[in-house]
Amino acid sequence: xxxxxxxxxxxxxxxxxxxxxxxxxxxxxxxxxxxxxxxxxxxxxxxxxxxxxxxxxxxxxxxxxxxxxxxxxxxxxxxxxxxxxxxxxxxxxxxxxxxxxxxxxxxxxxxxxxxxxxxxxxxxxxxxxxxxxxxxxxxxxxxxxxxxxxxxxxxxxxxxxxxxxxxxxxxxxxxxxxxxxxxxxxxxxxxxxxxxxxxxxxxxxxxxxxxxxxxxxxxxxxxxxxxxxxxxxxxxxxxxxxxxxxxxxxxxxxxxxxxxxxxxxxxxxxxxxxxxxxxxxxxxxxxxxxxxxxxxxxxxxxxxxxxxxxxxxxxxxxxxxxxxxxxxxxxxxxxxxxxxxxxxxxxxxxxxxxxxxxxxxxxxxxxxxxxxxxxxxxxxxxxxxxxxxxxxxxxxxxxxxx
Length: 402
What we know:
This protein is mostly beta strands.
């Protein structure tokens, strides 16, 4: 599958080179849209056909005049993952700079070297993206040049000299069942066509055919609309952003894993019932915020990151199995929160930040275990046992109210 949309703004001196590059880039793209721009197409006033030698810059007599900035818009809600700025055979008179902004925020810049030579080595490139950028509602990419007049040689070779920007972005995807099947992993079941990745915001509307996972899958933010349904079957969905359920999750024996470096929020008008729930963030300081009541009918594993109920007064009910707080995992609760489970296991390296609320333990046997190196020392809240239980505590344990 090629990229769904590739747009090229060309001029005479760069059309051949960039056209070839465009085909190569598009053929290698799967879920990302790639836009290539020669900047700024509307302000090119002429080209110098200067036949300078490999080591001779020559004396430019007519150059490329750049009016100073260029702006384009991308689909609202897109995620920009890469902005590549390239210059070749640019004469700038010394230290010209180019700055890239997403929605007004500077994400990178580059400076020419003050009279770049006209050979194949006179090529400057910068990856202007130190991270991932959400285009959001303003959805603008802006490139600014300083000073506003540059000279670019073509050396009687169309495509030799150029200034180019390549923007790679992932647009939001909406389920439309265009292929007439329930398969999440079929590209033509989405609009625009493409299987969701960790960078795509995904929406499932209420239509006749609803999606089912047939393989491990991922998305950024997920919204299940009123009347809509997502079926996991026995697969895992990795969510890199927020979860909003206004419809139904049919969990089957599948799993939802909240991953990535950003905080996540569980919200929506419907109560989500997970089967397996995992929190495995990039860092122990990343949170999954539970803003609505949530259920889990099998196991919950807090592997890395914060199980965080402190944003709202909510209840989390874990039935039929253990609630595991593993190394790198932690639980955050305050007044008004209730955490129910049949048993709790606190691993070495696990922690908590509990200033209020209630933890309810609803099963007999060994239902409370804190391993050596684990820590349960809340500064508030109550732990309440509803059956005869056995402690298995080798770590640090100090109940606030038992």
